[in-house]
Amino acid sequence: MLDLWFTGFLSLLEPQVLLFLMLGMIIGLFVGVLPGLGGTTALALLTPVTFGLEPITALALAGGVMGGTPMGGAVTAILLNTPGQTANAVTCLDGYPLAQQGKAGLAIGAAASANALGGILGTVSVLVILPIATQIVLLFGPPEFFLIALLGLALVATTSRGKMLRALVTGALGLMIASIGYNAVTGTERFTMGVEYLWDGIHLAPALVGLFAIAEMINLSIKGGTIAKVDENMKIEGLGDGLLETFRQWPTVLRGSLIGTLVGATPGVGVTVASFLSYSMTVQASKDPESFGKGNIKGVIATEAAINAKDGAALIPTLAFGLPGGAEMAVFLGLLVLHGMQPGPLMLINNQVEIYGLIWALTASCIVASFIGLLLARPLAKLTYVDTQLLAPLIIVISLVGSYAIDLTIENVVLSMVFGLIGYLMIRFDYPRITLVIALVLGEIAERNYHQSMLISDDSWSVFLTRTTSLVLVIGIVSSFLYPVLSSMVRKRIRARKAAMEVRS
Amino acid sequence: MRFTRRELLTASSGAGLALALPRRSYAASAYPEKNITFIIPYGAGGGFDIFARAIAPAMEKRLPHPVNIVPMNIPTGGGGRAMAQMQRTRPDGYMIGVFPIPGALILQEEQDARGFNLYEFTWLGSIGPGDTYAIGVRADSPIRSVADMQELSKTRQVSFTCTGPDGTSYMASVIACNLLGINAKYITGYAGSNDYIVAAMRGDGDAVIAANTSLRRFQGPDGIRIIATLEKESTLPGIPDATDLGQPDLGLITIERMVAGPPGLPADLKAILTNALDEAVRDPHIAAWATSIGVPWAPNPPGRADAIFREQAAFFEQWKGLLVES
């Protein structure tokens, strides 16, 4: 076992392999920064380039891209409230308020170290569970995916303290929008109004470009001024503090990495769910839940650790069964096959050196990308001091070009603009956008897996209780509801008792 | 010197004609002058995508002029959008695509409104041999044979995992169960072949009917046990084939990766593309690559594209009633 880890590591130390690894990382970082574009686009563009390369070099390039994108995505999310990738939508929640307070450096520093630590912990967990990986993947079927989606939807309320009703409204809106498109279980189309583009439902990436990038830029243009509401000559600092902050928040990093690994290993729910679950659970575990959404650094750390830990784990179902957990892994799967590696149970036996090489490449890229992210934080954070009259047109153009480039369709641009308007109205009337995104992501997952569960069980709900994994998840969901209620009851009682004691004394 | 308007018009149209005539003959010999788009009606990473991306560079080399063949995934509407686009595109040879036949014919039946007609496409050839199907169960399943399955279906429906109702695996499952007299239900909604095969391993359904090349990858003590192969002659030693099961028609259930151009593609352009494809599928590198991923590579003889499409269409017509009704 250990010698395989070592051989995999050695296979990366060829000059050409290292070169392509770094090249992939830089491309990933750059593409990650651009709103809408992520690892999927970068990998799809690079796949033809890899034709002439040795398999391990091609894998190093792909690992570089996958390790580099999350850091890029985090930077844009923090500075411009625009997720570079879907999963970074959650990073915006606390990252952007920090940037507004002039603490962009702190947020990027924390994101970078959380990225690197999450990546390392993700790798360690993958190396540990790889021998039993196939059994883990097989534990999760449609009933379990449905319950995970349900858990995500239930946690929507957690992220929106004080605005629960508004969160439920936008969550419901997200679910309604998610029902647009072709239903794979029944083979029927719904609410497409004869528009071919809507057959696949509302495309997530361009919708997010609108909801965040466009909406934010409209908002900023109307308000004027700069993003960071502080003295223009103020130094950008706090990078070091941010870096160290992550090491002070061990429980948050560990929780995030664990959730990232588990969600990654179970294909079908995706990285956005990982980042969101990690964020919500951190809010729930916090003694000061009210501070989240207003610039709590733990929110950034929890999200980033989960996103990076997830990357390594997502390789398990992709390699062991050819089941990609998301679009990025689907393209990566194509790349593997082009290089004569056939994902399936045999791959874990036949291509061990390549697999370990890939895992190391992913980790190395993630660490170096975090380091470069730190170096670039200072110049990039100055963006928050640029007059929005200059910034907004530029970001809008870049975002719409990105939206078009996702799959070269002009309808994406229209969709981004429509969602830009919806997003702006949501900012204007103070409705949370993240709940709409989560519902949009989870709606289809929940519906399809519920349908499949009912087909499997002949329409009996008992399927959610008779399977061990399902039962554990049901208990998890119930306790996640009860925990805040019980803990606040306990707190009230303690406070009352203290007050009574004081009165008595 | 002054010209009347009529003289000017005559002279200019004559000059236009003079310019246009040599140009037209130049156009045919100059083809291709720009990159050719290769439409894939599925997402990146799937079986069709991989084959299209592997064959595109090999085809490029066989074109009279050096241009790129650029793969483009249009997975919308189960592939329907890609087919609608192929129907509408100008027949200038700059757009070709690969389509699952006969699966795409169901889609045509169900997506009537999209207005594409596969019978009008210009068929150029197929990428590799057509794939046959096989029936698999979980390795520890009590179902040991098709006879067991038939027996079980007398007491309850036997469940099969597959894609949505317009997927090729659904079609194969419905036809096979009908021929074998199995009372079946279908757990639908899985994204691709790996998904529904793993679903069967997990126990979501009793069994799975999938393409031979896909299913064989999952054979093993913790994976899938193949109980029958729907080939005319079994290529798996000891496993019963369509003939053994008493239903040779099962061998007709295949999936072809057929390459086509739009309706009305001129004969000279069709010849260039057909030739490039035929030579590309015979490229030793392609054959070696296909073998390395477990696909026994035996390309169809050249010039049979139309015949293969017609055979597949006839088979589909035979089952259309049952498929569309279900």
Distance between the termini of chain A: 66 Å
What is the total domain count of chain B? Answer: 2
What Rg of chain A, in angstroms, do the CA atoms define?
A: 22 Å
* Biggest interchain interface, per-side counts: A-B, 47 and 51 residues
Which range best describes the helical content of chain B: under 10%, 10-25%, 25-40%, 40-55%, 55-70% or over 70%? 40-55%
Total helix count of chain A?
A: 23
The main β sheet of chain A shows up as: 2 strands, antiparallel
Topology record:
The complex is a heterodimer of chains A (505) and B (326).
Chain A: H1 2-10, H2 15-33, H3 39-46, H4 55-80, H5 89-100, H6 104-129, H7 133-139, H8 142-154, H9 164-178, E1 181-183, E2 188-190, H10 204-223, H11 239-248, H12 250-265, H13 271-285, H14 297-313, H15 315-321, H16 327-338, H17 347-350, H18 352-381, H19 388-407, H20 410-428, H21 434-457, H22 463-466, H23 468-504
Antiparallel strand pairs in A: 1-2
Chain B: H1 5-30, E1 36-40, H2 47-60, E2 69-73, H3 80-88, E3 95-101, H4 103-110, E4 122-126, E5 131-138, H5 146-152, E6 158-161, H6 168-180, E7 184-187, H7 193-202, E8 207-211, H8 212-216, E9 224-229, E10 254-261, H9 267-281, H10 284-292, H11 305-325
Parallel strand pairs in B: 1-2, 1-3, 6-7, 6-8
Antiparallel strand pairs in B: 3-10, 4-10, 5-8, 5-9, 5-10
Helix pairs in contact in B: 2-9, 4-11
Q: Your description of this structure?
A:
The complex is a heterodimer of chains A (505) and B (326). Chain A is mostly helical and 505 residues long. Chain A has two domains: 2-450, no CATH class; 467-505. Helix content of chain A is 73%, strand content 1%. Chain A has 23 helices and two strands. Chain A has helices at 2-10, 15-33, 39-46, 55-80, 89-100, 104-129, 133-139, 142-154, 164-178, 204-223, 239-248, 250-265, 271-285, 297-313, 315-321, 327-338, 347-350, 352-381, 388-407, 410-428, 434-457, 463-466, 468-504; strands at 181-183, 188-190. In chain A, strands 1-2 form a two-stranded antiparallel sheet. The longest helix of chain A is centred in the C-terminal third of the chain and has 37 residues, at 468-504. The model of chain A has no long low-confidence stretch (mean pLDDT 85). With 326 residues, chain B is an alpha/beta fold. Chain B has two domains: 35-130 and 255-325, Bordetella uptake gene, domain 1 (D-Maltodextrin-Binding Protein, domain 2), CATH 3.40.190.150; 131-252, Periplasmic binding protein-like II (D-Maltodextrin-Binding Protein, domain 2), CATH 3.40.190.10. Chain B has helices at 5-30, 47-60, 80-88, 103-110, 146-152, 168-180, 193-202, 212-216, 267-281, 284-292, 305-325, and strands at 36-40, 69-73, 95-101, 122-126, 131-138, 158-161, 184-187, 207-211, 224-229, 254-261. In chain B, strands 1, 2, 3, 4, 5, 6, 7, 8, 9 and 10 form a ten-stranded mixed sheet that branches. In chain B, helix 2 (47-60) packs across helix 9 (267-281) and helix 4 (103-110) crosses helix 11.
